[in-house]
Amino acid sequence: MAGGMGGGWSKQGSGVPLSERVRSGAPARPPVASLGDPCPARHCWVADAVDRHGAKRPGLLVEWRQAADGWEGRVVYVVQLRPDAWQLVEEWVPAALLTPS
To answer: Can you list the residues of the chain whose pLDDT is less than 50?
Structure first.
């Protein structure tokens, strides 16, 4: 499960805080699941969702990859298409737009 106010991705604090992963300089590595937790998925908040409502959307981070501009996370979340219609979205999102929940 995701960590709390500590800024890491795990309750044990073994994840790398988001602020350290998006800084320029030497390439940072994304957080890794703890040895006791084989599931790589983590809860997160997605900024700048594709519905452009300006609200952060809760998401599920399922994978990391190194892109030309830095790390990206593959995230699944929902967006509001119309006042009463929501759609599931899966996309690669820059790490700067992801916050641990």
So the answer is: 1-7, 9-11, 23-27
Task: Using alpha carbons, list the distances in angstroms from residue 72 to 66, 69, 75, 81.
Answer: 6, 9, 9, 24
- Global pTM? 0.62
Q: What is the rounded CA–CA span in Å between residue 11 and residue 100?
A: 11
Alpha-carbon distance of 67 to 53, in angstroms, equals: 26
**Residue 70 in contact with residue 94, Cβ under 8 Å?**
yes
| Rounded Cα gap, residues 14 and 29, in angstroms | 13
What pLDDT score was predicted for residue 10?
Answer: 47
CA 80 to chain centre: 19
Structural tokens at position 85: 């219609």
Question: Hey, what's the torsion of the CAs at 75, 80, 85, 88, to 10 degrees?
Answer: -10
Tell me how many degrees the CA angle 34-58-63 measures, rounded to the nearest 5.
40
CA–CA distance, 57 with 83 (Å, rounded to integer): 16
